Structures are given as structure tokens and as C-alpha cells.
Amino acid sequence: MRECISRYGPLVWSIARRFAPDASDEATKEIFVELWKHAGRFDPRAGSEPVFIAMIARRCMLDRLRSIVPRPKLKPAPDSLASSEQHTASERCVEAATAAGVLATLDPRQRRILSLAVGQGMTHEEIAGATATQLGTVKSLVRRALIAVRKRLSQHEGVP
């Protein structure tokens, strides 16, 4: 463990500091505890030690942030809401109406994937598992959906 801390301490500390600037020492300790618990999962064929450590550190910090910041209860994806509920939510503000309109123009598959990624904060891997879609396809759908949303929003605002 001493060798691990000596070798990867700066990497872990920099990740902890990025996510928890006020508690980076405590966060660094949490990361090393997680590394100790999950060390047996390291597979050199899957990636290098620094990548494995960075992934564990990032996941630990995201979990830490999620436990500190309460996540709002999410409603079902817009395509699963009744139309009257969609209108009620859309009328709350101009931005919501604009966003709902833009999302409605997306392909249903893109809309669903984007809803899971942005609305529910799921990772690409989690989306792939939840939708039985290949990871590469999920990444492509998210990227294309974001590009389409950006393009449609800029057209709506009259920005070239």
C-alpha cells in the first residue's frame, strides 16, 4: 500500500482536489480505501495501473458528490408523459417550452438516450445496459442528439 501511495499519490490527490477542493485530503483517503477494496479487479489487459486508479478515483469522487448534493426526483422521459403533463411542464417557462419543442423534433431513440444521459445522469455504459444497446451506438446517439439540439436551438434563437 505504501508503494501505491508513493507512486500514485499525486495522481489521486489531483483528482480529489479537482472534485473536492476544500476536502482533498479526506477525499484522497477515501479514494485509497476504495482502491484497496477493488485492487483485485485490476486487469492489466484492460488498461494500465494509472488508468485503473484514475477510474476508481473519479468514480469515488462522483459518488461522493452525489451523496453530498441531493439529486432531484426525476420525472419519466418526456415521451412517456401524457400530453397534458408535457404541456403543463412546458408552460412553466419559455426555456422549458423551447427545450421541449427541440427535444420533440429528435428521433425517439435519440430522445430516449439523451433523456437518460442528461436527465437522469446515467453514464454511457449504464445506458447501454438499461437499453440493451451497444456502447458505441449509445455514444453515437448521444453525440448526434446533442449536435441536433445545439443546431435547432441556434436556429430557434436566430444564431447562425
UniProtKB/TrEMBL annotation:
InterPro entries: RNA_pol_sigma-70-like, RNA_pol_sigma-70_dom, RNA_pol_sigma70_r2, RNA_pol_sigma70_r4, RNA_pol_sigma_r2, RNA_pol_sigma_r3/r4-like, WH-like_DNA-bd_sf. GO terms for biological process: DNA-templated transcription initiation. The keyword DNA-binding applies. Keywords: DNA-binding, Sigma factor, Transcription, Transcription regulation. The keyword Metal-binding does not apply. Pfam families: Sigma70_r2 (PF04542), Sigma70_r4 (PF04545). GO terms for molecular function: DNA binding; sigma factor activity. Residues 5-67, 102-151 form the RNA polymerase sigma-70 region domain. Belongs to the sigma-70 factor family. ECF subfamily. NCBIfam families: sigma70-ECF. This is ECF RNA polymerase sigma factor SigK. It comes from Enhygromyxa salina. The gene is sigK.
